[in-house]
Design brief:
By secondary structure, the chain is mainly α. The protein is built from eight helices and seven strands; from the N terminus they run E-E-H-H-H-E-H-H-H-H-E-H-E-E-E. The strands form three sheets. It has a three-stranded antiparallel β-sheet. Strands 1-3 form a two-stranded antiparallel sheet. The chain has a two-stranded antiparallel sheet with strand order 2-4. Strand 5 and strand 6 (217-218) form a beta hairpin. Helix 1 (19-41) packs parallel to helix 8. The longest helix is centred in the middle third of the chain and has 27 residues, at 138-164. The radius of gyration is 20 Å and the shape is globular. The N and C termini lie far apart (55 Å). The chain binds protoporphyrin IX containing FE (HEM) (2 copies).
């Protein structure tokens, strides 16, 4: 999905990330970042620690949503975009080496690998959060892996903005990116995006409402009970 570099004037701004894509990105990235920040800035005895667990669960919800969008979402969200041929990866590495600006409709191969690794790592972090023998060892180590990947992502976005001399990271805010010869999406799927936003807020509300800190149990009516590692107090 890459295009050769082209004169800046010829590069139109087209819609690449529809609203469901942006809700999925920001829901996942904000909840993951909140979970990380709370874990680093508090300990299991503190009053806010339960939000570490709840934000971690919410990032799991948004990851589940991303898996579904990979099957039924807009073109740049489909799973097929994640798997590049060796030639495409070689070309991409050559572009980076030559510090050349190239447009991509959707994820470039670097972002695709970053996202795949993060999507594999987060379920492991969430899983180890529930396992008593691993929560104090592997859980923390794996979450440093997430932190490392997020750092690479932010550096990559900054490098891309510098190469193109434009605010390309904001593509995930307004949905539009510049490209010379690819056509954008024809619809922003606003209705579906609003529905996913409301659903995400509802899940966050249910997690906060039905998590009992004293017993470390999540008991949402009509759903199976989930038992969390007991949060030690005092
Ligand atoms: C801090 C936590 C963040 C995380 C965990 C994160 C995660 C991700 C993930 C997983 C993707 C791949 C999307 C997909 O599945 O299709 C992605 C793409 C993207 N993110 Fe983030 N992100 C974060 C912060 C940001 C910030 C602060 C911005 C800029 C304002 C941003 C802008 C973008 C853009 C533009 C893409 C598309 C990349 C491309 O076109 O190659 N992200 N991000
Ligand atoms: C539902 C999911 C999660 C559960 C049940 C959970 C549970 C826990 C618990 C009980 C601790 C305290 C461990 C101790 O006693 O020192 C902890 C620490 C921590 N968690 Fe989570 N967590 C979850 C999700 C996440 C996520 C998504 C991240 C970030 C990627 C994360 C990052 C951390 C970090 C960095 C620590 C501190 C580790 C340390 O001090 O060594 N957790 N978590």
């Amino acid at each position: 999905m890459s295009e050769p570099s082209s004169p800046l004037a010829a590069r139109r701004s087209v819609l690449v990330w529809d609203l469901p894509a942006r809700i999925s990105h920001w829901g996942f990235s904000l909840s993951l970042t909140a979970s990380l920040l709370i874990a680093f800035r508090s300990d299991p005895e503190s009053a806010i620690f339960k939000y570490h667990i709840l934000a971690g669960m919410l990032s799991g919800w948004f990851l589940g949503l991303r898996l579904v969008l990979g099957l039924v979402g807009s073109a740049p969200m489909r799973w097929g975009c994640f798997f590049q041929t060796l030639t495409q990866i070689r070309t991409y590495l050559g572009e980076i080496w030559a510090w050349r600006a190239v447009d991509h409709f959707g994820l470039n191969p670097g972002s695709a690998w970053f996202a795949l690794l993060l999507y594999l790592l987060v379920p492991l972090v969430v899983y180890t959060g529930f396992v008593a023998e691993w929560v104090e060892t592997w859980h923390g180590r794996l979450s440093y892996g997430c932190l490392f990947l997020i750092g690479i992502h932010l550096l990559g976005l900054a490098a891309h903005a510098l190469r193109h001399r434009e605010a390309s990271p904001l593509a995930m805010v307004h949905g539009r990116a510049k490209g010379a010869s690819f056509d954008g999406l024809t619809t922003p799927n606003t209705g579906a995006g609003i529905l996913l936003l409301l659903l995400g807020l509802a899940v966050a509300g249910l997690l906060c409402r039905y998590f009992d800190e004293a017993t470390s149990l999540l008991q949402i009516p009509y759903l199976p009970e989930i038992s969390f590692p007991l949060i030690q107090k005092g």
